[in-house]
Amino acid sequence: MTAPKRLTDRKREAIIQAAIAEFRDNGFEITSMDKIAATAGVSKRTVYNHFPSKEELFAEILNQLWVRVTAETETSYRADVPLREQLRALLMAKLQMLGDDNLLDLARVAIAATIHSPERAQDMVARMGEREEGLTVWIRAAQADDRLKAVAPEFAAQQIHGLLKSFAFWPQISMGQPGLSAEEQITVAESALDMFLACYQL
């Protein structure tokens, strides 16, 4: 009984990976379910069994992107540990996640498709904005402990995410630049830490 399920799961994953490749190469509007089926090596009927429409297949890709983006290392605030040390762990986890090739592929697909559909873009941004939450919670806790200045936690979290993404996400997405090396990740994280703590640490 378990073997067919594994086969079904493998087919579903093949369909998703084929859809990512087709959406990335040809765009959402031009990509057909026929082409996705051919690329995945499955019948069109199999594709429709898993995903009743191209919109639903794309929604699943967006969902996978959202899950990856929000799967941050949860670091609870600790009063007995230096702020820099705690924040460094959060930023390094974020940089490693941003360097994931699968995530970058998913993001390219999502961004290209959402350009043509403001509704799709708004949904994705709203869902992704619900989280980057780990850092916001951490900042709020550090403020409550009188270790960070009274700035809106969401604003400060977005600032530091912006510092990381300007090196480790947008150049790769928009200009095809290679991901950061481990050494470059450290440099970017330490620089972001310097700027953030110089601005907000009490």
UniProtKB/TrEMBL annotation:
The keyword Transferase does not apply. Coiled coil: none annotated. Residues 9-69 form the HTH tetR-type domain. It comes from the Bacteria. SUPFAM superfamilies: Homeodomain-like (SSF46689), Tetracyclin repressor-like, C-terminal domain (SSF48498). PROSITE patterns: HTH_TETR_1, HTH_TETR_2. Keywords: DNA-binding, Transcription, Transcription regulation. Residues 32-51 bind DNA. One of its GO terms (molecular function) is DNA-binding transcription factor activity. This is TetR/AcrR family transcriptional regulator.
